[in-house]
Amino acid sequence: MRTIEVRLINRSGLHARPAVRFVQLAMKLTSSIMICKESSCVNAKNVLKVLSPGIDYGDLIIIKTDGSDEDEALKHLLDPIQNVLPGEDR
Fold first, then answer.
1. pLDDT in tens, 53-69
2. Which residue among 47, 50, 65, 77 is least enclosed by CB atoms within 10 Å?
3. Is residue 89, in this structure, part of any structural domain at all?
4. In a domain, 88, yes or no
């Protein structure tokens, strides 16, 4: 199991488009993936669950991966939470 703590720097938070992009990337991976805000951890392969904690700009989150591609998973999943999509403000 791999765990990383990261502060969300995408000003959109993990809402709508960034959340969908995050889940789409998570679903391509074989590892189980959880995303946690405070004491709430949810399955990162379900967009409704990813939206439920209300992860906003500046929030500290934890991403947990467990499986054969857990290192790759962490690398790819950081992109939608640390970068801005075209047409969004930073």
1. 999 989 999 999 999 99
2. 47
3. no
4. no
